[in-house]
What we know:
Blueprint: E1 8-13, H1 22-31, E2 35-40, H2 50-57, H3 78-84, E3 87-93, H4 95-103, H5 109-116, E4 121-125, H6 129-133, H7 135-146, E5 150-151, E6 155-158, E7 164-168, H8 172-185, E8 193-198, E9 203-204, E10 210-211, H9 218-229, E11 233-238, E12 250-254, H10 258-268, E13 274-277, E14 284-286, E15 305-307, H11 311-318, E16 323-330, H12 334-345, E17 349-354, E18 366-367, E19 369-373, E20 378-380, E21 384-385, H13 386-401
Parallel strand pairs: 1-2, 1-3, 3-4, 4-5, 8-11, 8-13, 11-12, 13-16, 16-17
Antiparallel strand pairs: 6-7, 9-10, 14-15, 17-19, 18-21, 19-20
Helix pairs in contact: 1-2, 1-8, 3-5, 4-7, 9-13
Amino acid sequence: MxxxxxxxxxxxxxxxxxxxKTASLVRLFIKAGAEIQVIMTPAxxxxxxxxxxxxxxxxxxxxxxxxxxxxxxxWNNHVELGLWADLMIIAPATxxxxxxxxxxxxxxxxxxxxxxxxxxxYFAPAMDLDMYKxxxxxxxxxxxxxxxxxxxxxxxxxxxxxxxGEGRMAEPENIIAFLEADLESKLPLKGKKFLIxxxxxxxxxxxVRFIGNxxxxxxxxxxxxxxxxxxxxxxxxxxPTNCKVTNTSVKVISVTSAQEMYDACHxxxxxxxxxxxxxxxxxxxxKTVALQKIKKAxxxxxxxxxxxxxxxxxxxxxxxKQFLIGFALExxxxxxxAKLKIQKKNLDLIVLNSLQDKGAGFxxxxxxxxxxxxxxTVEPMELKTKxxxxxxxxxxxxxxxxx
Length: 403
């Protein structure tokens, strides 16, 4: 899955012949899963039509602060456009547009949105060879880089003038590749390996019955998805669940029982940097499993249980460099029990859930957690979506690796 998936991209198109390439560029952004809004300078409409880019982007194209033909037309808010974007790309960036960007000459909607943007800004120069090498253009490059903007280098080849040399706007495929590589290199968990457990385990009684719990697996799956989005490679060991992940950086190992989850965790644990045990593992299993379905023969029926292996405890015992995070679901003496679990299982952080808190626990889309670290620092959090809780957990991991 592309790192551009889900990103909000503001594409600025200025008035150069390379503007015709933006139709292909918009299609590639959409294919990568991004959401696109386009701002065109008035001059760019001589090279590609707003209708084309509107159709491909599935959004209205903006080119002026308001429609001069309709006095009731809503004002195009450049501040909203600038703040909406996760990324802004100006392509093509002509010498004229770059000079305006560098000097704050705010005479069109594109420059106004650029000056309002709080997101990373990329620009793809496009002009003839002599213009590209002119001192004023080189000065614009220097200033824009000083402002924190990123240049997508122009390519060499045949130019509109008939000359051949540097100045061609990068091809759309190369712009996408450049953005993906640059964004991936800046992801805070790039290169980190995660082991995450999720969901319940089912402990067989006979071929059709089992001991289990109500865990949906959503919390663990959300953590895995967010970790992958932040650059990590993830092994997700999942019990029976209907949850899915689409990020190809997540390798899902499907298991059923606590023993299978134990074996899978120990297979991968030594090679990871972070392990997060979000699964609701059965504490007990039937001592013997019937080979055939047990018939309803008497009023009373007794199942003898035995303890399952404690996966988190076993990982804590062999932990070396790993940052180990556990979950605790408590109904009483929550803080005290969680602190004991940190010590007993050699954890770096525990995520405490209380069934006393409305909106927390199994099955729902929200969770209310309290973080407790190995120094026993207690940090209660507000009720949030599980996706937001996943982000909070991973922020703890990022902080650990950047301290």
